[in-house]
Amino acid sequence: MQDFADAFALAWQLIRSGDPDLWAIVLLSLQVSLSAVALACLIGLPLGAVVGAFRFPGRGLLGVVFNALMGLPPVVVGLMLYLLLSRAGPLGELGLLYTPSAMVLAQTVLVTPIVAALCRQVVEDLHHEYDEQLRSLGVGRLGTLTTLLWDARYSLLTTALAGFGRAIAEVGAVIIVGGNINHVTRVMTTTIALETSKGNLALALALGLILISLALIVNGAVMGLRHTARGAAYA
Amino acid sequence: MLELGLGAALDCTRVMFPLRAEQLVYEVRGRRLVDGLSLTVDGGSLQVILGPNGAGKSLSLRLLHGLLRPTGGRVLWGGREADSGVRRRQAMVFQRPVLLRRSAAANIRYALGLRPLPREMRRQRLDELLALAGLESLAHQPARKLSGGEQQRLALARALALSPEILFLDEPTASLDPASTLAIEALIRQAHGGGTTVVLVTHDLGQARRLAEQVVFLHRGRVAESAPAGRFFEAPASPEAQAFLAGRIVV
């Protein structure tokens, strides 16, 4: 129990001292995960909206696939990408393995199904409400999509948040394709894993505390925004 | 002022009227909800579709507007089936207004953006329509925070933003108080006065009396009677309409 308290004290000291290595790791984590979420939204939102709003053959199947992929094991995604990106792999030429780009790619693969699946549900519900009105106004397909996405904007923020939560907390994929190289591809989760195994609990705990604080702050911000939006009946 | 801004890009040369429904049938899972409905709407008229609940009024309106595809029969505009040009010259107001999750002004701006209009003209039309609906002071309020009557006035103003030649209204005042109902009726009259053909569905006898030029009385998915308003209310010919007017429940 003494260890635990010591670790906490050390962790707090580390955070307060503004250790540059620590903050570099935090910054890279944010960079990688935010990039991945942005990319995932770019792909997942239109995809989810199309499946949510339009009827076409294979629509139901796509919905099932999105939902199934939500639970994709990160290590498996890491392994697949590793095979693709390794020297001998089909994308080996790009030289992406063990770079932050590879980590962004891995997290994008993990987050896109989450964004698409949640977006599909949100858009489907909204489309149910808007369908007749938009058809009566003579809005085309593209117009319908953009209208639904815009009017669901606050709900979709929660969707992006769920994606961010998954990305920032995941360790399996980034440790395989990133390699946890100091000052290059070391992020919070991989450092926690490494330092714990080395017995360096203070650093691990410090990062753990920062990780949880970040999650709280981001969640709080989004909740606040949604609350304002609900006040205006926009959400 | 409502005719302003009918875009030149629209095919306005095609004759829309008369709008004619021929033997329309609409079935859901073998149940025939609209059963051989035929009616004619002349350009410039104000037609009220009247009838008890479940007579198929709303369905008929959706069939005419093209929101539903009939199981049988057809809808002809000036003798031909609707094309995209004809569809863009209609508008509809629903019983429960479906407003976008934006401000009141943005809801109208949205509809104005669906038609080719110069930017300047668009701003002017927005102001006109807000004034018409009496919503100037509420322009920047979230649309879905407005009262029921304000919401319906906004929905009507948004429909008029399309400069429709024909306006369909599905029980637009069914859940409104008397003052709001009168405001909506004034707007309908004004649009009609501006040359817009109006087809209004209602089960409210008072409203039908106040507005109708022509009445189509529906019963069990069929036209039981179609007559000029004066004659219909004075001397209804069909037993169903007689019973309905006498306040007896028609099923």
Q: What would you say this structure looks like, in words?
A:
The complex is a heterodimer of chains A (235) and B (251). Chain A is mainly α. Chain A is built from 10 helices and no strands. Chain A has one domain (21-187): MetI-like fold. Helix content of chain A is 80%, strand content 0%. In chain A, helix 4 packs parallel to helix 8 (172-178). Chain A has helices spanning 2-17, 20-53, 59-69, 74-85, 100-137, 141-151, 153-169, 172-178, 188-198, 201-231. Chain A is globular, with a radius of gyration of 21 Å. The longest helix of chain A has 38 residues, at 100-137. Chain B is globular, with a radius of gyration of 18 Å. Chain B has helices at residues 57-65, 84-87, 104-112, 119-132, 148-160, 178-193, 205-211, 229-234, 239-245, and strands spanning 19-28, 31-41, 46-50, 72-77, 80-81, 90-93, 166-170, 197-202, 214-219, 222-228. With 251 residues, chain B is α/β, with parallel strands linked by helices. Residues 1-10 of chain B have low confidence and may be disordered. The longest helix of chain B has 16 residues, at 178-193. Helices cover 34% and strands 25% of the residues of chain B. In chain B, strand 7 (166-170), helix 6 and strand 8 (197-202) form a beta-alpha-beta unit. Chain B has 9 helices and 10 strands. Chain B has a domain at 36-99 and 163-245: Rossmann fold (3-Layer(aba) Sandwich). Chains A and B meet through helix 5 and helix 6 of A and strand 6 of B.
What's the short version?
Helices cover 80% and strands 0% of the residues of chain A. Chain A is mainly α.
The count of DSSP E runs of length 2 or more, i.e. the number of strands of chain A, is 0
Model regions low in confidence, pLDDT < 50 over at least 5 residues of chain A? none
Q: β content of chain A, as a range? A: under 5%
Q: What is the residue-mean pLDDT of chain A, rounded to a whole number?
A: 92
Cα Rg of chain A: 21 Å
**Rg of Cα set of chain B:** 18 Å
Low-confidence region ranges of chain B: 1-10
Q: State the helicity of chain B in percent bands.
A: 25-40%
CATH topology of chain A: MetI-like fold
Q: Count interface residues per chain for the largest interface.
A: A-B, 16 and 22 residues
Distance between the termini of chain B: 43 Å
Describe the strand arrangement of the main beta sheet of chain B, using strand numbers: 6-7-8-3-9-10
Helix percent band of chain A: over 70%
